[in-house]
């Protein structure tokens, strides 16, 4: 296996552009620019790979062919309605099929490179469109690129794929696609569906009758900070992944759990997000011989948060993590000012936070985070043969 990291990127991926919309491709442009300026993409083991669009055969592994036709037709039909398209969340835009297929193809390319041993890790920061359903656009997502990548891995012979989603929103589309497939474990940490789109992701969603325990959900209360998030992550994710024994880890690394994100209510920092990416890499190293495919996802603090979070992700995936105290380069700040005048531009790669946490214990007076942890452990741990009350499990 090569120790290289593949970064799938081309400026054409910025064509996934819904116009005046929260999911603005400038966040990806600024991420790649920041990573370049800091030398992350020039590391010796990094290979930049240009993606090819996913063809209909691959997209149809996840999506209904009638939906693919609708995505093609919608931009040419001013009266088109249906399939979740043409809404405020999912407006129709010119070249929608081509742009969406390119994002899906990029994640499939990343997955193929890792599975075939051409790289140990691979990243598609433009991906992570996890809400798209088999026959419906949803939550800013047209084609579900993480699901397409996982389907491609299964076609290549993978038998156990773990998908971990740390976006603030529930990874509902990926869960739906693999709901009854015991070869795929989907794990999602997110803000409670009682408070946030898409309204799913409760602990009792544990997989279909043919795959009990194939879905793990950790809904967290609004306002959770780094310490609470890390406590929940480490109380559940390592245990279920170790029990499942994946061959490869796929992650969706949405940055919208940050305290500055305008569309959600968690209180994470860039430092806490960086700690989560480090934990995901460590799990891939421990369980999958390092095989890790990482995608982006949500994130709507376009200048203030996303570029820093995903540059940390790229650094962690490609080698040594960046020092949080690293200054953002002047040329990048100038680009931010040109692209988004008037926005507050971060001067350093840190929020000056310390993402330490106290490990979960089944004792004492539980707070809201501990109640969420307990609910998930009680529901799913027995399905893995784990003791929900034993902190060693």
TrEMBL record:
The keyword Acetylation does not apply. Keywords: Acetoin catabolism. It comes from the Bacteria. Pathway: Ketone degradation; acetoin degradation. Residues 21-315 form the Histone deacetylase domain. InterPro entries: AcuC, HDACs, His_deacetylse_dom, His_deacetylse_dom_sf, Ureohydrolase_dom_sf. One of its GO terms (molecular function) is histone deacetylase activity. The keyword Amino-acid biosynthesis does not apply. Signal peptide: none annotated. GO terms for biological process: acetoin catabolic process; epigenetic regulation of gene expression. Belongs to the histone deacetylase family. This is Acetoin utilization protein AcuC. It comes from Micromonospora deserti.
């Amino acid at each position: 296996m090569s120790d290289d990291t593949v970064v799938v990127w081309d400026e054409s991926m910025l064509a996934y552009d819904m116009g005046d919309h929260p999911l603005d491709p400038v966040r990806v442009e600024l991420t790649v620019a920041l990573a370049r300026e800091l030398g992350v993409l020039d590391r010796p083991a990094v290979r930049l790979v240009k993606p090819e669009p996913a063809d209909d055969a691959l997209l149809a592994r996840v999506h209904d062919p009638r939906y693919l036709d609708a995505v093609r037709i919608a931009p040419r039909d001013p009266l088109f309605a249906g399939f979740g398209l043409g809404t405020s969340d999912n407006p129709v835009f010119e070249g929608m099929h081509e742009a969406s297929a390119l994002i899906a193809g990029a994640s499939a390319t990343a997955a193929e490179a890792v599975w075939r041993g051409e790289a140990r890790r691979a990243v598609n920061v433009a991906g992570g469109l996890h809400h798209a359903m088999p026959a419906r656009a949803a939550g800013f997502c047209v084609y579900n690129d993480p699901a397409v990548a996982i389907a491609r891995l299964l076609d290549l012979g993978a038998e156990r794929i773990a998908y971990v989603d740390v976006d603030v929103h529930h990874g509902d589309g990926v869960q739906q696609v693999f709901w009854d497939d015991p070869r795929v474990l989907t794990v999602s940490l997110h803000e409670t569906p009682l408070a946030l789109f898409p309204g799913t992701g409760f602990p009792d969603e544990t997989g279909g009758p043919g795959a009990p325990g194939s879905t793990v959900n950790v809904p967290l209360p609004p306002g959770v900070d780094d310490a609470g998030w890390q406590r929940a992550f480490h109380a559940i994710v390592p245990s279920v992944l170790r029990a499942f024994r994946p061959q490869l880890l796929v992650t969706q690394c949405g940055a919208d759990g940050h305290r500055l994100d305008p569309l959600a209510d968690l209180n994470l920092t860039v430092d806490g997000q960086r700690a989560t990416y480090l934990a995901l890499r460590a799990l891939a190293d421990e369980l999958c011989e390092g095989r890790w495919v990482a995608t982006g996802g949500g994130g709507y603090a376009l200048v203030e948060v996303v570029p820093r979070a995903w540059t940390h992700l790229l650094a962690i995936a490609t080698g040594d993590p960046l020092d949080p105290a690293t200054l953002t380069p002047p040329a990048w700040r100038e680009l931010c000012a040109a692209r988004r005048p008037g926005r507050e531009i971060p001067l350093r790669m840190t929020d000056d936070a310390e993402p330490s946490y106290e490990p979960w214990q089944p004792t004492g007076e539980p707070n809201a985070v501990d109640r969420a942890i307990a609910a998930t452990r009680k529901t799913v741990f027995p399905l893995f043969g784990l003791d929900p009350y034993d902190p060693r499990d």
